Amino acid sequence: METQAQGLLESEPLQGVDDDSVASADFSSMLSEEEKEELKAELVQLEDEITTLRQVLSAKERHLVEIKQKLGMNLMNELKQNFSKSWHDMQTTTAYKKTHETLSHAGQKATAAFSNVGTAISKKFGDMRSHSIGYSIRHSISMPAMRRK
């Protein structure tokens, strides 16, 4: 049974075929003259179709530009619309919402902290002013008393 199995297997390993060797191979010798003529005709037809499709695409692109101009759509408007849409899409993401909430909360905390600092500074200035007013009143009362002596 092993001898039958060995007979089915090739003794040489399979060789990989690379694209360059296939591209450089000359298959024209395998083709009949009739097949060559058919392939040449098909090649010409495909090249003509590609040229036609390019012309049609170019005409459609020009028509598109004309329609956009008539509608007042220009590159700047399209950029604005794309930016607005992208900004809206970004704002609806979960990451943006969480970041916005976190920064908003941090802003509220910072505002409260600055308010507390401002209140403390105002109170300190108020205390200093009342102290200086008291000093000023005492000073003005004591000056005439000193002059009388």
From TrEMBL:
UniProt-listed PANTHER family: TUMOR PROTEIN D52, TUMOR PROTEIN D53
Keywords from the named record: Coiled coil
Family: Belongs to the TPD52 family.
Region Disordered, annotated ranges: 1-31
Protein name, per record: Tumor protein D53 isoform X7
The organism's taxonomic lineage, starting at the top: Eukaryota, Metazoa, Chordata, Craniata, Vertebrata
Segments of skewed composition (Low complexity): 22-31
